[in-house]
Predict the 3D structure of the following.
Amino acid sequence: MPTDFSALLDSVLMIAGLSLVVTGLVMFVRSKTSTQASSVEAFGIKLNVTHPSLILVLAGVGLMLAPRLLPEPPGKTDKPEAVVAEAAKPSVPAPATPPTPAPVAAPSLAPPPAPAIPAATMPPAQASAASARRAPPTKPQPSVPAAAKKPAARIVATLPAIAPPTASTPLATRPSAAAPAESVVTPPLATRPARPTLVYAALGLPISRSFWSGETRASYTGRMDATLQQAGREVLRMDTRKLELDPAEFNAWWNESSQHPRSRERCAAPQAPLALLTARVETPTTISSVESAYWPELTLRLFVCASQRIYRQQKTLAPHNEDAWPFSVELNGEIERFLRTYRSDLRD
């Protein structure tokens, strides 16, 4: 039976069964309230039933199940399903086998061969059989591609040859395979600062004159500290560190003897700086009615720790219209000029 005709027959049975089920259900609903028995006659058999519509429902269900219960026709095959199953199977590429070195022959565990019997004492047939029996079976070696053999040969060629230690070689000088070359401990270098350091300190002593604009000792000393720090970083390209000194300590350091004991002590301390820079602004002692006689004097000192030499410079400051604070223009210019003058002495 052709496949199309079988499918058509299954569809007809399903439609007929569905029609009978629907008809039986409709009749059952309409005759639900009736209590009189009905008679149905088929094939010469008369049946009295209360709801004959149930027979239609059962017949329709039987027709709908008929395509499932009937055997498949011999001409119907499952080739399309097999083709779909094969198409759905993903193709996985074979993994690339990594190059492996040539196999190393394992030691043979076979029992020792029996003592050989001279071939002259046995017949030719037995001698040929015995020689074939004594010959070890040859194992087929796995074929390794030429590209896979090259890395193994290259690795073997690059391994360093280590001579075995002899009895005369002391244990301390024998090479150790476990100790890498990086395990050699080098003595640590002396700790040195990444950049040279300049230590600075300042003291400003303004007086009650109108050109000071109400500056005090603390405020003007702070302005001088900021100027020394900026000039040390920009002109000398050095790290700067401020010495926290009160006026009495600063005056004791400023008025020390020509031997400079405090400066030498600071240069010899741990993390010693490269140089010590001090600045002092003070009004000279005078009795005059001229206002310029009370303009302050700037004194600068630079002590180089390496050469134990001291450099001095003195300048009377004058006010300018461009001053951001009293005498700022001449104070900044004089400090920068002083450091540029002796910058080469710090590098010697």
